[in-house]
Amino acid sequence: MKIGLIGYGKMGKAIEAAAEERGHQIVFKSNSANPLTMEDLTSVDVAIEFSKPELALQHIQLAMEANTPLVVGTTGWNNQLHHVESLVDQYSGALLYASNFSIGVNIFFEINNRLAALMADYPEYQACIEEIHHVQKLDAPSGTAISLANGILENNESYLSWVCGEGQTPHVNAGQLGVTAHRLPDVPGTHTVTYSSEIDTIKISHEAHNRRGFAIGAVVAAEWIFNKQGLFTMKDVLNSKTL
């Protein structure tokens, strides 16, 4: 396939390498010095977007207008999801978004959901989430941590909302789930979900060794969305069993 990269930082370079390994051609690489154009988008089969939260919506709109399938890895814009849904419908477009494209992380999401449902009957356990990312990570908590928190809220009625502490454990009230976000140099990403009681502690954790897993997942998503129409997530990719 012909693939375009919107954003060409560390993730963009990792995606470029993964795409070329899988036999794809990178046609354009846009960044702040080389802004995205309609001509860029019409020259590719699929575009992959890893930029900044404040730029994601304009990139999404341009891609839908160009009728170019788009894979979005930028996080921090999900409060505009209804607007994005309307854009996809308006232009009969194709968009796949995820807080994390790692296949392992998306399996981890499913394990988190199942564990949250199991723990719903045991209120003596207090849940919390800890995430560690590199210092260049712009949003806190990470999109992955938010997905984990929402998975717990959806499967365990003991929790009604989550609250984040940056660099320290947040104070939580009844019904709140604590999320702690750390930023350290040169850390690809670690997420840990913990359930603690007076008797014992249960933990599940995912630790990324490098960016390659995220990059391969983004390319797999691009392969999957080609010639499709609608709004999708990585769960759709996993459920298709075409990895």
Q: Order of strands across the biggest sheet?
A: 2-1-3-4-5-11
CATH homology superfamily of the largest domain: NAD(P)-binding Rossmann-like Domain
List the domain count as a whole number: 2
The main sheet comes to:
6 strands, parallel
List how many beta strands DSSP finds: 11
The helix content, as a percent range, equals: 25-40%
Mean pLDDT: 93
Separate helix tally? 8
- The name CATH uses for the topology of the largest domain is Rossmann fold
Low-confidence stretches: none
- What is the percentage of strand-forming residues? 25-35%
Output the radius of gyration: 18 Å
Name its key features:
Rossmann fold, six-stranded parallel sheet, alpha/beta, 243 residues, five-stranded mixed sheet, 8 helices, Dihydrodipicolinate Reductase, domain 2
Describe this protein's structure.
- The protein has 243 residues and is an alpha/beta fold.
- It has two domains: 2-101 and 212-240, Rossmann fold (3-Layer(aba) Sandwich); 103-207, Dihydrodipicolinate Reductase, domain 2.
- 37% of the residues lie in helices and 26% in strands.
- It has eight helices and eleven strands.
- The protein has helices at 10-21, 38-41, 53-65, 81-90, 103-119, 143-155, 212-225, 234-240, and strands at 2-6, 25-30, 46-49, 70-72, 94-97, 126-134, 161-166, 176-184, 190-196, 201-207, 230-233.
- A six-stranded parallel beta sheet has the order 2-1-3-4-5-11, with helices on both faces.
- Helix 1 (10-21) crosses helix 7.
- The chain is elongated.
- The two termini are 16 Å apart.
- The model has no long low-confidence stretch (mean pLDDT 93).
